[in-house]
């Protein structure tokens, strides 16, 4: 398992490695491992606003996908989202500290069935996702023409 000494999971966005900055939608999601579950905290602000005072559904889906990506880091398995299904259960308000969790449901060959949940401060579910990730060879990530993080060369790349 890939973790920092304080139990947190390293940032998996290549452009953010080492800078501790935000993910592509401007949200800072810090994750850590708790048993088999990845947990994290996030707060939405005006940059993720959809309706007034409420987070855009796409931003909510991004955070869930991002938490699922952290599961890959823990598994040290290169994979990509093939399918992401999000159910929005309640409005996600801006400026509120929120909890996120993600876990592996089942692995079937290359297919990783994962789930994630976004909750408010009282742990009421705001949105939940089920996802199919497909394990890929690390070569998949070279298609954009950018150099890959050094650490990735030591991680598994088997697609079997
Ligand atoms: C060493 C380094 C370690 C690094 C470890 C850290 C991770 C580091 C990554 C960080 C990043 C993550 C960040 C967040 C996650 C993204 O955001 S990833 C970005 C969004 N996703 C993408 O761009 C994926 C784009 N899609 C693709 O590239 C290709 O469609 C895929 C997903 C690789 C699949 O293509 P393929 O490998 O040719 O697979 P294919 O033969 O079509 O299908 C295989 C099986 O899956 C099924 N399948 C395929 N697609 C679907 C679907 N959409 N729905 C249902 N079933 C499907 C097929 O039916 C087939 O089933 P079987 O017939 O075998 O039963």
What keyword list fits this structure?
6 strands; globular; 160 residues; mainly beta; binds Palmitoyl-CoA; 6-stranded antiparallel β-sheet; Thiol Ester Dehydrase, Chain A; single chain
Number of strands: 6
List ligands, each type once.
Answer: Palmitoyl-CoA
Tell me the fraction of residues in β-strands, as a range: 25-35%
End-to-end Cα distance, whole Å, is 19 Å
Contiguous low-pLDDT stretches (5 residues minimum) are: 14-21
Domain unit count:
1
Largest sheet: 6 strands, antiparallel
CATH architecture: Roll
DSSP helix fraction: 10-25%
- Class per helix and strand makeup: mainly beta
Mean pLDDT: 86
* Gyration radius, in Å: 15 Å
Molecular shape: globular
Query: Helical region count?
Result: 1
CATH superfamily: Hotdog Thioesterase
Query: H/E series, N to C?
Result: EEHEEEE
- CATH class categorisation: Alpha Beta
- How are strands sequenced across the largest beta sheet? 1-2-4-5-6-3
């Amino acid at each position: 398992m890939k973790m920092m000494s304080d139990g947190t999971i390293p940032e998996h966005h290549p452009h953010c490695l080492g800078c501790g900055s935000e993910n592509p939608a401007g949200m800072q999601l810090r994750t850590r491992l708790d048993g088999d579950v990845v947990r994290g905290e996030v707060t939405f602000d005006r940059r993720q606003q959809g309706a007034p005072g409420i987070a855009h559904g796409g931003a909510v889906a991004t955070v869930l996908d991002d938490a699922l990506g952290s599961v890959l880091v823990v598994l040290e398995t290169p994979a990509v989202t093939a399918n992401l299904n999000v159910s929005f259960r309640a409005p996600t308000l801006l400026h509120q500290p929120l909890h996120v969790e993600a876990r592996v449901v089942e692995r079937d060959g290359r297919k990783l069935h994962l789930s994630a949940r976004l909750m408010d401060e009282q742990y009421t579910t705001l949105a939940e996702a089920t996802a199919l990730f497909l394990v890929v060879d690390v070569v998949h990530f070279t298609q954009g023409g950018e150099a890959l993080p050094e650490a990735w060369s030591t991680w598994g790349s088997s697609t079997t």
